[in-house]
What does this fold into?
Amino acid sequence: MTVIVRDLRTDVRADIEGFARVRRLALPFLLVSPESVVHHVARSHPDAHFRSLVAELDGEVIGTAQVSLAHQSPEPGQGSLNVYVHPERTRHGAGSLLVRTAEEHLAAHGATKLFSWVLDGPANRAFAERHGYRASRSAHFLRLDLAHGTLPPLQDPQPGVELRTAADYADDPRPMFALDAETTSDEPSDIDTEFTDYEAWIEETWKHPLLDLSLTSVVVVDGRPAAFSVAYTDGTRYSTAMTGTARAFRGRGLAKLAKNASLHRARAAGYTEAFTGNDTGNGPMLAINKWLGYDICATEVRHARQVG
It folds into this structure.
C-alpha cells in the first residue's frame, strides 16, 4: 500500500467528490462542494500558480492540499499550502508527501515564505513543527444554531440607510468589488491583500458557486454600498464568507445590521446552522458574533516557514 500524490483530476467525478469529502471530514465547519472544488482550479488567476493536490491510497483519496502564491499581495514571494488528511487515514505518510510536493511547487515559482493553517491540536501542531513551520496568528471557527437559537431582533435602518442584497447588483457588481477590496485590505492577516483586478474578482469571487446573492446583505448609505455580509450556502448549511464596513462608515453598527439581516433571511429560508470565522485579534467582529449568539467550535493556528 503506497501513497501517491498527484494533481486533482477535475474531469473525474470520483476525484472531485473524494477531495470534497476529505475537506468536509477534516473541516466540518467550512462549506465545500464538488462544484467549489472545481471552481478553485478553473477560475484561479494564472499568477497564483494554483494547484489542488490529492494523496491517493489504493485508489482512495485520503488527503488534499490547496497550493498557491499570494499574487494579490504587494509583497512578493509569499505562498500558502493548506493540507488536510482524512481523520481515519492518518499515519500513512500522506500529509508529509503533500507538504513536500506543495513546497517544491511554490519554491519553483519563487516563493520564499510559506504559510499554512493548522488546526489547534497537539498532533496537528507537532506535524507542522516537524516540517519546520512556526506558529503565528490564530483564528476561531464559530457556529450558530439557527434552528433553536434566538437571533437579536431585526433593526430598523437609520435615516439615509437602506438594506439591500447582492442580487440588486447582479447587472453591475463593480460597487461590490470596491467594497470588498477596501474591507479585505483591512482584514487582520499575515499576508496583505490588494484587489485591483476587477475581471479576476468576477471570475474568482462573484462567480463562486457557493455565493448566495439573495442572502448576502448590503447596507447602502446615500446610495453607496457601505457594509455587507457575504453568504455562502451549499443547499443545507449557511456560512458567512466576509463581513465588513467601508472605512468612512465604521462605528455606526452597519456590520451588525448587515449580518443580522442575512441570518434572519437564512433562517426563514430553512437553514438550521450557520458558520463563520474570525481572526482572534479581530475584537470588533468577535463582539458582533457573540451578540448574534455564535459559539467557538474550533481554532486554527497559522504557521510560517522561510524557504530558499
User: Anything to note?
Assistant: The chain has a mean pLDDT of 96. Helices lie at 13-26, 34-43, 94-108, 122-130, 174-185, 198-206, 254-268, 283-292. The first helix runs from residue 13 to 26.
